Each structure stands twice: as C-alpha cells, then as structure tokens.
Amino acid sequence: MSNYTFPKGFLWGGAIAANQTEGAYLEGNKGLTIVDLLPTGKKRMDAMLGNISSFTPQEGEFYPAHEAIDFYHRYKEDIALFAEMGFKALRVSIAWSRIFPTGEEEAPNEAGLQFYDDLFDELVRNNIEPVVTLAHFDVPMNLIEKYGSWRSRKLVGLFETYAKTVFARYQDKVKYWMTFNEINMLLHLPFLGAGLAFGEGANKKQIQYQAAHHQLVASALAVKACHEMIPDAKIGCMLAAGTVYPYTCNPEDIFQGMEKDRESYFFIDVQSRGEYPGYAKRFFKDNDISIEMEDEDAAILKEHTVDYIGFSYYSSRATSADPEVNKNVTGGNVFASIRNPYLAASEWGWPIDPKGFRITANQLYDRYQKPLFVVENGLGAVDEVTPEGEINDDYRIDYLKQHIAEMGEAIEDGVEIIGYTSWGPIDIVSASSGEMKKRYGYIYVDRDNEGNGSLTRIKKKSFGWYKNVIKSNGQDLEHKSPLNS
C-alpha cells in the first residue's frame, strides 16, 4: 500500500507540442517557425545552438517537423486513444505561426484559429482539459530574420497581441495556460529555445540575457492579459527542472551546485516573485552584461506574477568545481552533467533519478510557495515491435512507476501539485535529436528517423498500465496490464 494519496481532481494526462506532432508545416497558411529549419543529423545541434546558415529549408536536408506524426490531420484518432486511457488533461501548444504566419499581420489567420477551435472542442468533448502553452520552441521565422527574434523589444508587443488574440478566442475552452516552454532553454540551445542566431564574434551572453528580459516582460504582459480577459483561468510559467547535486561535500562543489541551480531558477524567480534577484544583478555586473529596460518594466514584472509553476523533470544533474572531475561529463544531454556513480542512465545518457524528482518538487515548492504542475516527465527509449505486433515496454513502466511514486511522496511532504502530464504519450519527433527512434509514448507511431512508415498507431504495454494508474488515481502502480488492454 502506498504512503500517499493523490488529490481528488488531480489532472492525469500527457503532454505534446505543436512543433513535434502537428506536421502540416505550411498547411492552412501557416508560416515557417524554428523547428522547420532544424534538420536531422549532425547539423541539427549546430543549428539549435544558433549557428544558422539559412532562414529557409535547404534542398537535400530532411526536416522531421515538416510532417512529424501528422497530428494536424489525425488528432481525433489520437484524442480517442487518450480518452480511452482516461486522460483528465492534455498539454498542447499553439503554433504562433499558425495564428500570425509572419508574426506581424494586422488580423490573425482564421484557418489557424479554427484548427485549435476544433482541437479544443474535441478535447472538451472527451472530458479532457486542455493545458495550453503559448510558445513551445516557437517563433515565426519572419521575426527571427527581420528583428533577430527576442533580442528585439519589438517581439514583446507582437507576442502580447498574439496572446490576447488566443485568450479572446479560447476563453470559454481553456482554463490552464503557460507562457514559455522551458524558458531557461534559451541559455542552452538558444535557437531552439528562443530563435536566437549568432553572427561571428557575437556577445552571446549579452544577447541571451537581453532576449530573456524581453521574454520575461512578454510573459508578465500575457499574465496580465489572461487575468483581465479570463478571470477564472490560471496561467503559469515553465522550467526545465532538475536539481544540480554537488559532486562532493567540498564547499566549492556545494557553491557550484547552487550557482547552477540559480542559472535556471533565475527565470522563475522573476516570473514568480516579480523582480530580478540579487545574484542575477551581480552576475550581470561580473560579466559586463547590461540589460536595456523600459521605465515600466519593473512594475510590469512585479504586478503580474504567475499563478503556478509548470516544470519538466527528466533527470538530476551533478557538478564540480574541479576541472579534472568535470571532464567526466555525460553525453546526449542538453544540460551538461558529471556522471553520477549512484544512478543508471537512459540509452541517451540521461541519469535516471526518481528520488531527484521528489527533491526537485520540494525545492521548487519551498522556494515559490505556489502550486506546481508536472507538465513533462518520461523515458526516451528504443522500442521494438515483436513479430506479433506488440511492444513490451516494461522499462518505461518501471521508470514512470518509480517517478509517480516519488511524486506521491512529494505531495505527502506537503507539496501542492495540480497534475501530471507525462511527456510524449504518443511517439513524437525528439526536440533535441530530431529522431523518431527516441520514443516516449504509450502509443507507438510507425515512422522512422528518415520519415518512412505508415504512421499507424499501436498501443504499447504501458498503455494499459497508465490507464490503470489514472483509474486508481495513482494508487495502483503495480498492476501489470495485459498488452493492448
């Protein structure tokens, strides 16, 4: 018997993003966006870091987001499967470039607005609460090419217009909103996170933190608009979370771990507390970073803080002040981390740390004292289809079972958690690698890394398992579901 009870009305479900699922990249008058320029292969990481040679797709390259898993045309089929599992919520994102293809139109694109009307209607019809992210690694390409993306103040007003447009349109259908997905990704993969491309000799830190300021102001203005336009809605921020452990008890390592945590917490400190923390001001001073601010920015940030903290958790990290120790860094992870000798790792080198999930949730709640929403958690793995057409993903069940149990313990610790939407409930294109073989879903999609396949959906063993988790409100994690139940 578990030592915890999940709250009544807990929002169990899954999370996807427009750029990794929808495809139909030019359909319905949609404009180009960030992921439409991210190919598979070796060039992808270079592009995500901001080294972009062209602002148009190139002949001979494969761009997996262009078709993705064709959710744009197949969403009813997929939502029916989510409903069969008993989902209470589905986290999605709106593609900014479907609503304003260049980001600068005077009137929004009706075809894009209608698509999300239809999508939200289908969710509501299936008793699934839409949880909607305004910007999930998504900036209209025109704004990147013309203004340099978020380095320009111009984007603050354009984003506010976009936010107000979708709030007005969907105010009766959507009650949970988030502003920017994994806003701290701007520091790690600046093009993927914020559409930032760099020329030769660019002062990257200066550009990144100026862009961050513009995003933080835009986030606050979206919060303001949401509170005014949809008073009964909740709007949050979103962090790529994962506690950074000091490698040893050497005070230098302890301090390094604190600094690494603060690198991410900075964004949420501003969005949740409404002002720049002292450590950030010192960091700017020590690194000759000068943030241009408008007179009204301080008041905007202070008066329009978020209602809840959304976060993704995949793994913890470890750091050291010793350069020799730092040579032993894990591969395959966006966030550099020393290999933790106490933890196993996924096939992509991500440490598997269920206890770190509980630790991270406690630290976030202690720090902000606002409700948390776990909006991403899951295991990317290679799934094999048996000759009988089955996928026995016990490793995924084991990963999720351990993490959900630790989330339950965090709730017992007193942490207020709104819900849990595991990442990629259906197989989708990996944001970091562009692969399809890195699968997270309860539902297999027949598509490979080169874009081949029928796109047929197949239930995995974890489908029935998660269905039972939801049915029992998290009390039955041991149930071994027969395949395809």
TrEMBL record:
<dbReference type="GO" id="GO:0008422">
    <property type="term" value="F:beta-glucosidase activity"/>
</dbReference>
<protein>
    <submittedName>
        <fullName>6-phospho-beta-glucosidase</fullName>
    </submittedName>
</protein>
<keyword id="KW-0378">Hydrolase</keyword>
<dbReference type="InterPro" id="IPR001360">
    <property type="entry name" value="Glyco_hydro_1"/>
</dbReference>
<keyword id="KW-0326">Glycosidase</keyword>
<dbReference type="GO" id="GO:0005829">
    <property type="term" value="C:cytosol"/>
</dbReference>
<comment type="similarity">
    <text>Belongs to the glycosyl hydrolase 1 family.</text>
</comment>
<feature type="active site" description="Nucleophile">
    <location>
        <position position="376"/>
    </location>
</feature>
<dbReference type="Pfam" id="PF00232">
    <property type="entry name" value="Glyco_hydro_1"/>
</dbReference>
<dbReference type="InterPro" id="IPR018120">
    <property type="entry name" value="Glyco_hydro_1_AS"/>
</dbReference>
<dbReference type="GO" id="GO:0016052">
    <property type="term" value="P:carbohydrate catabolic process"/>
</dbReference>
<dbReference type="InterPro" id="IPR033132">
    <property type="entry name" value="GH_1_N_CS"/>
</dbReference>
<dbReference type="InterPro" id="IPR017853">
    <property type="entry name" value="GH"/>
</dbReference>
